[in-house]
Amino acid sequence: MTKYSEMLIFIFVFLYIVPLGVRPLASPDETRYGEISREMLVSGDWVVPHLNGIRYFEKPVLGYWLNALAMKVFGKNAFAIRFPSAVATGLCAWLLFFWAKRHFGSRTVAFFSALVFLLCFQVMGIGVFCVLDSVFSFFVTAAMIAFFWGYTQTTQQGKRISYSLCGIACGLGFLTKGLLGFVLPVIIILPFLLWERRLQEFWRFAWIAMITAILVVLPWSIMIYRREPDFWHYFVWTEHVSRFLTPQPGQHSFPVWFFIPILVGGALPWTFLLPLGLTRDSLKKLWPKTTALRFALCWFGMPFIFFSLSKGKLGTYILPCFAPLALLISVVLYRYIRLGKTKGLSIIAGSVTVISLLLLAALILGQCLGSPPLYTSPEIWKAFVAGFGLILWGVLSLTSSRVKNGHTKLLYFACAPIVFMFSGHFILPNGLIAEKMPTEFLSTLPDIPKDSILVSDNYQATSGSWFYGRDDVYLLGRMGEYAYGLRYDDSHHRELDVDQFNQLLKKCRSKQSVILFTKASRYNDYKARLPQPTLEMTNRYLVFAQFTGARPSLDLVRSQSNFVLGREVSP
What we know:
mainly alpha, 26 helices, about 5% strand, disordered C terminus
């Protein structure tokens, strides 16, 4: 194992594996994907995804399978459900390293391609978060590298093997996130072959990839159709065609330029080096004279344009663009250093030192003069951790600006923000945790009776399901992502309005506990129309209200929390 490999492995383990279990689960994304996988494990149904016991047809099953397998190994916890995303990111960096080494003939380019990829803020942020994008991005990367391997093969057998691997990766991408597993490779490969004037390559070998992809997706596709005939209509039309062509309610409609600032911010800290690639010499050297560079440009550019034209947008969608972007950045930096021009890099590194110190000053001022301050007294240590990360970022950037060797400069520049990135898991303000991570709030509350009826809103229901291990939470108010599944006869009764909730309370009376767990803003809307609860707990953002049944001891509540406000209400 070379020093390059050892350094990449250390950075990957330090940034992506070690801190996975530190943060509470965020709602609704992490609790959603974790809960669907938990219910698969409990029910033994690995074909039809269910969320809170309700059919959930927005995604295929592979991502849930991976999370469930991780939970089988590591248990039901945050580490387990984030593990597949982290591993997928590491495997993506590994593929990028070996592809760059093979087609650019330089260990330096290969090393910096993987390093740039792992140290992009967006790649790291998504790679330690339980969503499907990192796994999907890995399959897209695998498909593209397999295709290019086949494209450059000189033997028919080599082409057949590599295009079969491409088809397998596309099929697995489809099982992770749907039709994009087929669409993205096609919109990358076709323009590239047109640019190369070898479009006949597509028609000669595309059938191999198509057959292998179909063989991968066919077994589950048939099983889900036999179990849920309506799945494909909803999944293809509503989740793909309608979402791409027309803005849907709640489907994140943004302007066409939305992904530009996302890309600029997500590529930090490497965005600071962008001026090095915009010089006349750099642009001349970067002009895609090689087949590999032309392919990398198509791989980066076509998905970026495709997602920009889509009506529905989320910042995570362009994650597949970051692997080729990392390669392009690495090539620019390598050629810049080979020209012997390190002055520009020194100036930029010095500027980053100033930026990090300005951020440190902003942190101090915000903490001292902010009303309210970013961190409260019990968590003031988080400000010191964040400050230390910023100071180290500035010191290493300053060192980068002063050393003479170009490669050493880049290493210092790359490593400068690592501690700050790592500290991000630990320095989340309690206010943000209280608002966005409901399981932390639930962990401070007394246990609820096993036979209690739990009611929640569409955002917090997944947190309640995950935390209490329940798949029978009732939904009050707007239904959101549950709306389609609630149309089925066996789930429709789980949908409540305020009047129906009051009827449920009358029906239960003192026989059974009825607990409402919801956002404080929604609770305030309902409160005037609800009876007084026997117990009401809040952290300002969320409310836990028990309406019937035996009351938990308020002393127990107080002993379990130092930030949750409790209020016992006389019946």
